[in-house]
Design a protein that fits this description.
The chain is mainly beta and 322 residues long. The protein has three helices and 26 strands. The strands form six sheets. The protein has a six-stranded mixed beta sheet. Strands 11, 13, 14, 16, 17 and 18 form a six-stranded mixed beta sheet that branches. Strand 24 and strand 25 form a beta hairpin. The chain starts with a strand and ends with a strand.
Amino acid sequence: MNWIEHDLTGYTDVKVYSNTDILNNQNRFFKMAKSMFKIVKQTNNEVVLTINGIEYTFPGNNGSEFYIEVTSIVGSTSYYGTFTIQHENDTVLSLDYISIDGMRRTNIVSEKLPSLIPVIQNSDLPFYLQLVNEAEWLQTGGDWYVVGANDVVTSIDAQPAISGGSFTYILRTTGETFDETFDFTFQVSDEEIRYFQMEEVECEFNHILVEWVSKYGQLKSWWFEVEKTIFESPRQLDMDVLDDGFKTYKNKQVSLQLKTPRCDIYNQLYLSDLAISDEVYVYDGDTVETKRQCKVEQNNLEVEKKRKDVIIKINSYKYDII
């Protein structure tokens, strides 16, 4: 865990650290990660501190370390918050912070835009793209304009631009090194530029829009091909009857098996947090009113270096009578 030391005002009996992440002089805590303070004593005497109105007593010798978890406070903060540490009613630290949805970005927990993004130009539904790096897309006139920002995870509804035809279905990120074996990457003036292509789906009537909240707390969208619709009864109850027949109560469930073909490692990584998202939705029609929550039951979302079809099974409708 990376600890950041905070300067205290007029108090030297402890040192205070937190695992905050600092960007643009702002302290950031993440709702899907543990948020902690570390108190290191600088005296042999007992120390009493109040943190956000809760009193803590720290016994032990000089150098003793104590850890205070504040994850629940960060999780209940809508966006802006303040941690206040006091000693004998004097404020020794006032730490302003922002509470970020999702988890902290690391070398393992990170991702790029997909190489090939399926779109439907005449759709009336929102299509959310999550950006984890600064990217550009090419307008029809040949000009590039920036979307997103470095080291800030954002989500944009790209459908207005898709419907309006204000770009030529090409995005790019610059200044990063990519494996040249993957598509849409080439060298320009000693700087690798990676391109991402938006492509109209071949048969829009055979596709369904899936929307979910990503591991960073941002919205994502993807047009999946519907492979099959599955009608099933996961639970049933047989009752005794007077004659030799059956009286059976069943719950009814309708599921969809969805596929997006030939995904490279970037597409697989982008789609992978579908498996862990608590909020997955489908649009069962052409309007936003048809959006409803569903559940991902099965998937093959393991990220591999080879291309593969990504297949998921979602429980779409459920009717319980038992």
